[in-house]
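Contributing new records

If you add data, match the layout below exactly. Sequence lines come first and carry their own label; structure lines follow with theirs. Keep one chain per record. Anything else will be rejected by the validation script.
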Amino acid sequence: MVIELSKENSLFSQFLAEIRDVTIQNDRLRFRRNLERIGELFAYEISKKMTWKSVETTTPLGISRTYTLAQQPVLATILRAGLPLHQGLLNYFDQAENAFISAYRKHHKDHSFEIKLEYFASPDLNGKEVILSDPMLASGHSILAAYQAIMQNGTPSHIHIVAIIGSEEGVKYARKNLPENVTLWMGAIDPELNAQSYIVPGLGDAGDLAFGEKR
């Protein structure tokens, strides 16, 4: 299943416009904060699809029938670009366990690249819902590599993949290679992936915009 939040205008559309804007991007603090706020909106939308349980809550004046999450999710992200988005999700799923994956593109002289995973810290994932976040879903290869790493640490009941912007090609690749118990949560899906596998129009390099250019 693919859910695209920008198909319906909301505050999400405002934040998305700002992180795309080449002028507003110059304010690194605002860029990170917008990624975080987008993560909060994703958390709210994902929570509607999760399992809730009825509980009795004692108020100063009596007992109220309320609802809480039946199980906290595990929040996983791909370093480094995913950190602000992850923090937004964690602001709302504030009791969640967390997992962190280090993944990067290793480029070759012929302009091809492969995805390298160097670090993965994770709790037990068996039977849990996992929310895996990365700001951009370009070719889809990084998300697939992260999914495969997750599956080495247990069998989640469901995986929600969160990306702010994806390419049509990357979404197609992910749908082809991921199982049915995965939901793709996309902010927007852009039509083009250029020769360097960057999304067009996209927003540029999310990690560099959030934390500074890397060598």
